[in-house]
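I had to read the description of the data format several times before I understood it. Each protein is reduced to its one-letter sequence and a matching series of backbone shape codes. The format is easy to grasp once an entry is in front of the reader. For illustration, here is how one protein appears when written out as sequence plus structure tokens:
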Amino acid sequence: MVKNNVVVPEIKNEGTATTMPIITVDQLVKRYKKAEQNAVDGISFDVPSGSLFALLGPNGAGKTTAISILTTTLAATSGTVRIAGYDLATQPHLVRRQIGIIFQRPSLDLNLTAEENIRLHATLYGLYPYRPFFRWMSPAYRTRVQELAQLLEIQDSLFKPVKTFSGGMKRKLEIVRSLLHRPAVLFLDEPTTGLDPISRRGLWDYLRQVRAESGTTVFLTTHYLEEAEGADQVCIMNHGRIISNGTPEQLKAELAPSTLTIDAENRDQLRSELQHLGQLCKEKEDAPFTLTSADEQVHQVLRQIQTPLTLVKTQSLTLEDAYLRIIQQEM
């Protein structure tokens, strides 16, 4: 759903997405002291339970402020937010029990082992009573840590100092730590920044596993647009406002339609036929014809053309193409 007069609606089918929103944001506003305008300017959206939701936007768009509010690290100026049924303003302590967070910059103690970092986190959040040794911790804690460590393949490094870990290993450890209490929503704030391509792909493979096994809702901010291609819903912010909202397919179809390039030996006949079909196309001298339309229209045109074709080439544009066009329209 969208309430800002914008369109609403792989990780497709990886989780257990439903129509019931686990996050509801209604007219959220944040204005910093002495600021001339709102950093977040009355945004509203819903996030279905079990979905992958991507919040995108250029630097300064307001998405970092928005996610800081949703994760209870920053107070809103006005508006309401409910997460997993709890009101963010009046029940922040209950909201925190329902969320896990992976920040852009790792927040690990490099001098502790991986397990000691997890244990410290569990104690600070009141998940388990602290004990000075792993073997003295409760059986429930030890079982949960071993399960997650095995899922993310860091079980062999669980008792090694974090300072010996690669960037990808640190991210895996942060996932283990954030999932320890089985959160309903996992917030990922630029989770793959600084990771090499292999580590990035590996991290998303593990996140797919987590979603498939637990149905966790994932709320993502990223500058890597390909990471949002498989999102169930994409919300684009700029200047503190939501300027577009929908599935990746909707955004691409509406703002970055497919391109069809065709050619024939008898170009005059093909040109006449295209004009008869009401197709406006770009044509340069001694060059193929290029048509821009939605995927369904492209296939419909091809079925109607009778002139023998010597070239048929389609190009579906990406979410990044759609994103850039949306942002450029706002400039």
About this structure: DSSP finds ten helices and 14 strands in the chain.
